[in-house]
Amino acid sequence: MPPRSPLPPRHGLSAAWVCTPHRDPARPAGWTTMGAWLRDHVDARVDVEGLLSQRRFVYADAHPVGDGDPYRPHTFVWFHRDLRDEPVVPGRLAVVHRDDRIVVVDKPAFLATVPRGRHVVQSLVVRLRDELGLPDLTPMHRLDRVTSGLVVCAVERRWRGSYQSLFADGMVRKIYRALAPWRAELCSPTVVGNHIAAIPRTGRAEVVVRAPVNAETLVELEERRGDLAVYRLTPRTGRTHQLRLHLRDLGAPIVDDPLYPVDLRIDVDDFSRPLQLLASELAFLDPVDGAQRHFVSTRTLPLRSRSS
């Protein structure tokens, strides 16, 4: 692990870091300057030339890294990445609960839980750290970017392990609600079980036939609304896109799903048609004080493109 960063957070994000390797006495270093090493080893998406010229790479003592500085083995270097001008994701982050250990927030559709790809500033953790003034706030689990609803966050580092274990060990009862086509032939309740695997580098997942079951969801019809219905979904596992695939395979794909049954190639900055899937309830025994916790989303279906 690196020592403490000499750079303060920016937009709620800690500085990125890289470290030169230890010197092997039997193999001389292949670089004579720090600038040469940075060009070879920093992500190609980073403008190394620009950051060097602007003196934005720094050592542990906050001194800028010079392009011609002699190469140093086992040396940490910090920097902040340049970010694209991200459009603001509509909808508010509603704080459902806050105490000294956790914050439970109700997120809108299209807001990533954590910084990823083209969504950095417009992510739940970055926005919430800034809005609440909690620099160490960390989500204990994730929702898909296009899914709305409840996310539990730990306020400080010391609480992370306890609450993360709840989710990792399947000790949290999660209830989702989805708006999807009504199917007269669909028995309720029904349990869907199959094998789901992510498809590498696509952002999608698929059902693998004749493979051991690793994904299971209890599906219940809660309310019919003409040609549509609200389904109550209780996942017993947490595979990629599990609920979306399970409803699709029941002949009731979730309304405005951009990926299933067909990838609609929706632009990531198109916020006009939110997926009608809501993480509506969370319940668990608090690992610190043993209290029963139960949280309910402030949102209802159908979700609007400019929901508050």
Question: Could you walk me through the main structural features you see in this protein, from its secondary elements to its overall organization?
Answer:
This protein has 308 residues and is an alpha+beta fold. The chain folds into 2 domains: 1-82, no CATH class; 94-296, Pseudouridine synthase, CATH 3.30.2350.10. Helix content is 13%, strand content 27%. It contains 5 helices and 14 strands. It has helices at 34-41, 48-53, 124-132, 160-168, 242-249, and strands spanning 16-19, 76-79, 94-98, 102-107, 138-139, 148-154, 173-181, 190-194, 196-199, 204-207, 215-225, 228-235, 277-285, 292-296. The strands form 3 sheets. Strands 3, 4, 5, 6, 7, 8, 11, 12, 13 and 14 form a 10-stranded mixed β-sheet that branches. Strands 1-2 form a two-stranded antiparallel sheet. The chain has a two-stranded antiparallel sheet with strand order 9-10. A hairpin with a 3-residue loop joins β3 and β4. 28% of the residues are buried. The model has no long low-confidence stretch (mean pLDDT 93).
Largest sheet: 10 strands, mixed
Helix and strand run: EHHEEEHEEHEEEEEEHEE
Could you say which overall geometry the principal axes of the C-alpha atoms support?
A: elongated
Helical percentage: 10-25%
Distance between the termini: 40 Å
Beta content comes to: 25-35%
The CATH architecture of the largest domain comes to 2-Layer Sandwich
The CATH superfamily title of the largest domain: Pseudouridine synthase
The CATH class assignment of the largest domain is Alpha Beta
CATH topology of the largest domain: Pseudouridine synthase
The number of strands is 14
Tell me the radius of gyration.
23 Å
> Taking all residues together, what is the mean pLDDT?
93
